[in-house]
Every structure is written in structure tokens, then in C-alpha cells.
Amino acid sequence: MKMYENQANLPRLPLPALEDTCRKLLEWSQPLLSSEDYDSSKKAVDYFISNEGEGPFLQKKLTGLRNRKDTLNWLEPFWYGTYLGNRLPLPVNSNVAFVLEKNIESKNMPQAEFAASLLVSLFEYRNLLYSGNMDIDFQGRKALCMSQYKTLLGTARIPGKELDILKTDNPSNHVAVIANGRYYKIHAPFKADVAKNYTHFYNSIKMILKESEAEDNFPVGCLTSTDRTSWAKNRNRIIELEPSNADSLNQMEGALAVLALDGNEYESDSEMFKNMLCGNSRNRWYDKSIQLILSSDGHFAINYEHSGVDGTTLGNLVRFIYKNTKPHEEIKEVNAAHEVEEICFTLDGHIKNEIEKAEAGSEKAFKGLSIEVLLFDKFGKTRIKESKTSPDSFIQIAFQLAQMKTFGKVRNTYEAVMTKQFLHGRTEAMRPVTPESIAFVLEPTSGNFRKAMAKHIERISECKNGYGIDRHLFGLRKMHEENFPGDYLPEIFHSPSYREICRNFFSTSTSNPKGLLHAGYGPVIYDGYGLRYLIYGNELHFVLSSKVHNSENLLKLKSNLEESLVEIASILESE
Fold first, then answer.
1. pLDDT tens digits for range 358-415
2. DSSP letters along 90-108, please?
3. Separation between Cα atoms, residue 14 and residue 472, nearest integer Å
4. Rounded distance, CA 346 to CA 539, Å?
5. pLDDT in the model for residue 333
6. Is the pLDDT confidence value at 332 over 90?
7. Model confidence over 178-209: pLDDT tens digits?
8. If 411 and its partner were Cys, which of 163, 175, 461, 505 is the partner (CB 3.0–4.6 Å)?
9. What is the mean pLDDT of the chain?
10. 403-408, long-range: CB < 8 A, 24+ apart
11. Which fold has domain 370-411+432-468+505-573?
């Protein structure tokens, strides 16, 4: 079955009952609230769902939207509006970084050779994607939605003054390369002979590395690191300055992907990851759905723009690259013509000044972020499962124990749960802090852990099946904004329960670890923290993040997380 043939058979995202979601709002927020705040929230919830409240009307409107024949997924327009309407800069605030593992064959390849092999793999993947012959993704026996693959390659987020758009070139027949702040276009070779393709890319990369030794002092890509409204204004000015600038922007934005060739060498995993996430704006184009970053010391990462693609979809590309990137023999006797063009911009003094300001702002944001990588090698999934424990529950509960050790309390946590078993599904927000998990961190016994794990698994299942609370409440709020523009929101959306459950003090998620070494992102609120983890057979890899003013607490959290993992394993093994 081809990749899109099952789309018509996928179920639509369900719409939970109003009373169920509002009851869960109270239940899920209660461990985070004082009794007074809980009572206040209950009054707001009770009124909202009553015949006098706004809830039934908003639920009816949302139900009508879901049941329309042209609605593929009732959440989707709200989702895109929220992502694309966000005016914050993409690095630190939105984009995600994956540091990829190189397979045994490609691990020690020099930068140019690896870049050429990588591009061979990328264009092989492109051909598989465009032909529609890719295998359908499954989770267990459930087929997953494949719609995100349409914006995986050839896509860029184009800035607007109030709302960005996603632009996809399909098919895209070139890749954009950035080296030393200069931009180049390499055309697709379209040859059946892999060795000739490799030679084509290798010669092109070598030429780019040589020509880019002279740095561009005003790289336009710096502007993609600024707030979206400023970038939209400057992008329009660049287009107005010179007609050829519009074509240059199209070449960058319409590329299959961006390949950034860095000269960096790193002393630690934490330093390396931070640079892959938000560093070196002179050598980045943060609007692109996929930026492949190769440092001169061999590190390899993908920095991706998140509005059109989630990590589970990107993981498919990661695994393909891991499996298929390998050394190829260069055909030295063939003098392949270089199909490389430099992409240039004509700029005025105002734009040059804006680029300098953008670079300074990006450097300030970079210095304002703290990243800590934890490579936990004492055990992994194998040992955790031997104790008849869910690895994800194990880590989430250990993280709450680490919070208690660090802060003396447990705060609201966001755990991303995939909903791609539904048509055009994205994610739901699971809330792992429960009365059972609080009971465990206050009294860490095996019995309390088992109860906390059971509740965690139950909530994961609810969210995976479309019965979480975040997306439904979000939809109800959007219905009010559409039907009563400018009016005061219903009291439920000002209640302590709603405010607390929407304050993502900790933002957490995981990914399939195949082909990955690290994955992570910045905190989503100023005082918050990010945690992304990868679960291997015998290891656990974590990337923790915070703003720099919380760097001391971040180090404590990292140490306490390691200690908590060991402590819980010991508790379970003593059963």
C-alpha cells in the first residue's frame, strides 16, 4: 500500500464531551492548587457547563465545525494559527534540534565526503517521498496519518506582519548550502548511477568550501533569527530593493533543505547541542523546515522548523539517513560539470544595519540560554522493563522526584503525546503530575510507584486516543473568540485551574532513538525548563534547558535526575 492510500480510512480526531473535559481540568490541576484556588476553579467550571454558562453553546459550535464535510481535523486551523501567529524568534522559542548518530561506515568521513554522501541519501529520500512509494507509518498495528510528509521537504515558514505562512515547493530540485555566511544552490543530478551522483555532490561541496573562504559580512539569514514581524518588514524591503532578490529568497526558501557547513569544533556535548539549536545565525536559515548542520569536527544535526512537522515524522528521515549514508567511490576520471550557483542579495545600508542588529540579538539569545546534556549509562530500557515498568512512566516519575529534590515541590509539566492515528493528527498535551505521583515523591515506595505508573499510563492512553483536555479547551476558547470577538473570556479561562494547567513550567517529550544521539529545545516560558529524552536499550540521553538565570538550578536538576533514576531502580529491584 502506498503512503497516502490509507488516508481515507483514518478516523477523525474525536471531540470529547464538555462535562468530561471540564471534570478532568479540575482533576488534573488539583495537585497543583491550594484548596482555595481549587474551590474557585470549581465554581467557574460548574457555571461554564451549566445551562446558564457559555460551555454548551461553544461545544455546539465546535461540534458543528467537527461535523462539517470539509473539516478533516477540527483542531488543525487553530493549531496552525497559533504556531504561525507567534511573533517570537524561531531559535530558542520554537525550533527543535536533533543531533544525529552516524553509522559505523560514515562515522569517520571528512566533512566534504560526508556532506556528499548525505546529499545522495537526501535525494534518494526525496524520490521515495515524491513517488508516494514510502511505507505507511505504524504505531503497533495502527496506521498513522502521513499528511505531515507533504511539508517535510521543500518547505519554509514565510514571515508575515501578523501571521506567517508555510510555503512548499513540490517538487524541489535543488539544495541550498550555507558556508561562511554565503549561499549556494546545488541542482539535483537526476542520474541513476549513485557513484556519479556522489561525485557531482562531492565536487560541488569542495568548490563551495574553497570559494566561501572569503566570508560574507552581511548574511541575510541572520534576519531569520529575529522576531517574525521585524523579519517580515525587512524581507519585504529586500524584495523591493532589487527584483533579483525575490528570486534569491525563492532559491533559499524553496530548496529541498538547507545544508549548513560549519567550521566549529566543540569541547562538550552541551556546548555542541546549544550551537546546533540556536547558534551561529550567520550560517543558518531558521525558516527552513529542515536544516542539516555539519561541523568541521564531525558533529551532525538537524534543526527543524516545528509548525508543519513533528518529531515523529522527522524521525523517519533520521532513520533513513542513518541507514543509507555511507562512503561512495568517487569517479575521478569523470570531470563532472559543477551545477552550482551562488545565491546573492543586493542590500542597502538599512538592511545591513538590520543584519548587524539581528546578529547581536541572536548572540544575546544564545548567551541567555543554558543547555545541559546528561548521558546516563547505568541502565536503559532493558533493565527498566525487566522490573515490569513503562520506561516513559519511569522517567517522568523520576523527573518529578528530581523536581522535589531541587525545588521542594512539583510543578505543572507538559508531556507531548502523538495523535497521528487520526487524520491530520498532531499532538495532545498529557499532564503527568497526579495525586499518585505526588504521593510517590513524598513517600518513595514501590507500592506508591506502581500506583503512579498506572495513572500515568492511563492518562497517556486517554491523550493518545484524543481524550486529553488541552486541545479541547483550546478549541472552546477559539470558538468564543470567533463568535464573540473582543468580549471577555468566560471565567473558566481565568480560573486558577486553567491558568496553572496552561503554564508549562516543564516541557517534556521523547522520540524514537534510532539514528539519534540527542534531541531538545528551549524552555517555553521565561522561568521554565525543557527536557527531552531518548530511551536506548542500555542508556538514557537527556537534554535539559533553561534561561541562563536558572543555570544553577538546571545543574541541580540534572544531578538530581540522575540520582532519582538510580533511586527508583533500587526501589523496584528490592520488591
1. 999 999 999 999 999 999 999 999 999 999 999 999 999 999 999 999 999 999 999 9
2. HHHHT-EEEEEPPPTTTTT
3. 10
4. 50
5. 55
6. no
7. 999 999 999 987 677 788 899 999 999 999 99
8. 505
9. 96
10. 403/441, 403/506, 403/557, 403/560, 404/441, 404/442, 405/556, 405/560, 405/563, 405/564, 406/553, 406/556, 406/557, 406/560, 407/553
11. Chloramphenicol Acetyltransferase (3.30.559)
Reference 95, options 246, 281, 252; nearest CA is 281
d(CA 422, CA 9): 10
| 125 pLDDT above the threshold of 60 | yes
* Cα gap 362→375, rounded to integer Å: 28
Contact 514, 318 (CB under 8 A): yes
Domain spans of the chain? 78-367, 370-411+432-468+505-573
User: For 374-445, where are the alpha helices, taking DSSP H only?
Assistant: 381-386, 391-407, 435-442
Whether the domain at 78-367 and the domain at 370-411+432-468+505-573 fall into the same CATH topology: yes
C-alpha torsion angle, residues 562, 563, 569, 573 (rounded to 10)? 150
One CATH from 3.90.25.10, 3.30.559.70, 3.10.690.10, 3.30.1120.10 for 78-367: 3.30.559.70
Given a cut of 60, whether residue 336 has pLDDT beyond it is no
The predicted model gives 451-473 an average pLDDT of: 98
Element (H, E) at 124: helix 111-131
Length of the chain: 575
Q: What is the mean pLDDT of residues 123-138?
A: 94
Q: Measure the CA–CA gap between 335 and 333, rounded to whole angstroms.
A: 6
- Cell 548518530 locates to 101
* Confidence (pLDDT) at 476: 98
Write the single-letter amino acid at 181.
G
Instruction: Please check the confidence at residue 337 and state whether its pLDDT lies above 60.
Output: no
Distance of CA 321 to the CA centre of its chain: 18
- Distance (Å, whole) CA 224 – CA 244: 19
| Pairwise CA distance, residues 314 & 360, whole Å | 31
